Amino acid sequence: MSKPTVIVALRDSESVDGLVRLACQITTGMDAELVALHVVEVTPGLPLDADAEVLDEPGKHVLARAREVASGACSREMAAQLVRARHAGEAIVGEAKGRNAELLVMGYHGRHGLGEILLGSTVQYVSHHAPCRVIVQIPAPHTR
Question: What is the pTM of this model?
């Protein structure tokens, strides 16, 4: 029997500490594989495999911070996965399916805009399509 996999989907550097610490708390006492996931959303005008390191650089920093936090908060290694996709929600669900994840942990930024109304949020997409349980951390009202 393989270890359960817990994926922590990280949008930006502001979400790293809270989400990784939450995943550490949830998996305390479990022998689970922790995976930090950052999706680089690539605009349709650019190929997904474009040789543009500038696209991936912010995500690499997010993932490095996640591994640092996991090392301190739960004293364990955290795998890091950077994925390029057109839509973050589809990529997160795809990774969860591909890794046979038991749990997805993600944040919700709480900012509403026309794009979210028309297209739906990443959290909404993931919660409807994920093959596993999803825990969403919503920031306190004073931090939104």
Answer: 0.89
